[in-house]
Amino acid sequence: IDAGEVFLSILSNDDPIFEVDTLPGVAGSYDDAYALWEATKPMITELFAYEGLIPLYAVAWPAQGIYTAEPLTDPAQFEGLRVRA
User: Fold this and answer.
1) Is the torsion defined by CA of 23, 29, 31, 32 positive or negative?
2) Which of 21, 22, 32, 70 is within CB 3.0–4.6 Å of 9 for a Cys-Cys bond?
3) pTM given for the model
């Protein structure tokens, strides 16, 4: 049996549904994340089926952050800032 795990948002170029759970403020708690998974699971399951895949589980990842050496107080400060993932 082949199996793997992937952070779904990397598939967002194929379908925007894969990045819904990464939008800020959409799921502020684990209960919200579970409800969001239940709401999107049928669509994700259908898209996976086209590739012969079956989603087995989902993991609620904690919020992500941006870290800098200096405080950023204005969105304009992001311009030209080098970012790494």
Assistant:
1) negative
2) 22
3) 0.69
